[in-house]
Design a protein that fits this description.
Blueprint lengths: L4 E2 L5 H11 L7 H14 L6 E7 L5 E11 L10 E10 L8 H15 L4 E4 L6 H6 L24
Parallel strand pairs: 4-5
Antiparallel strand pairs: 1-2, 2-3, 3-4
Length: 159
């Protein structure tokens, strides 16, 4: 197995592609892929809020990625540095599944984040991926809720 490596800004387009093709309910069009890749490239620069580990595909591109976005929370005994992470994307190209790549990349990411002082980890899991996350120590949380709100169209704009 190829070892996971820390992602760089040059991996952003492939991470965006893996997320779009393997996680999102509707794949992104080229304009949105470019927007995501450009934003992620900035956020993957040293010291910013994104961390990712990837495994390269022997045929080019990425075989898998594990991406986390760090955010601040108020400190508490369980969160002494006030750092939390949302695991935003763990995705493997279908041609490379069942080789342990997702687990290896996510384990490397979690180890890196722990060294950075992150103590609170959150993610959304599909039924198919829940066993992977539970095996790494994640537990279901029945209190977790989610909402998406879109801004109301400006007056005079057609929707």
């Amino acid at each position: 197995m190829t070892e996971p490596r820390l992602a760089t800004p040059s991996d952003a387009a492939e991470i965006a592609r893996l997320r779009s093709e393997n996680i999102l309910s509707e794949p992104l069009d080229e304009a949105w892929l470019t927007t995501c890749a450009d934003q992620l490239a900035l956020r993957l620069q040293y010291g910013d809020d994104a961390r990712a580990y990837v495994i390269d595909s022997p045929s080019g591109g990425l075989a898998t990625c594990a991406l986390g976005l760090i955010h601040a929370v108020l400190p508490a005994p369980k969160y002494p540095k006030g750092l939390a992470v949302r695991i935003h994307a763990v995705a493997t190209d279908p041609a490379h599944r069942r080789h342990g790549y997702a687990k290896a990349a996510l384990t490397a990411l979690l180890d890196h984040l722990e060294r950075d002082g992150v103590t609170l980890y959150e993610l959304y899991a599909s039924a198919g991926s829940a066993p992977l996350y539970e095996g790494l120590g994640f537990a279901p949380d029945p209190a977790l809720m989610r909402m998406t709100r879109f801004p109301a169209p400006a007056e005079g704009n057609a929707s």
